[in-house]
Amino acid sequence: MFNITESKTFNEALEMSFKKIDKDKSGQVNSRELSSGLNFIYAQLGKRLPGKLATPPTAAQVEESFRKFDRDSNGELDYEEYKGFMVHWFKDLFKRSLHV
Ligand SMILES: [Ca+2]
Ligand SMILES: [Ca+2]
Known about the structure:
Pfam families: EF-hand_7. Keywords: Calcium. It comes from Rhodosorus marinus. It is built from five helices and two strands. By secondary structure, the protein is mainly alpha-helical. Helix 2 crosses helix 4. The longest helix is centred in the C-terminal third of the chain and has 19 residues. Bound molecules: calcium ion (2 copies).
């Protein structure tokens, strides 16, 4: 089965998005950076996906997942933690998109 999260395109997009979202170039992403980054991503996706999926998550939803994936609890996601977050997030998004 084709697995989007292991594809080259996905991983390249992931790396690019990490650099884009990490606004202060600290090499880590905090929840505020992540939240505004997701808003941006959803705005882009919204142009291609049905309206239901295009609604960006609330800051509280992002915060909840953020805490789960911040494995060392330092309040920031390094690239590996970020990857875990995004893989989880987009798997869920794709799963839901099958039901539209
Ligand atoms: Ca940062
Ligand atoms: Ca961390």
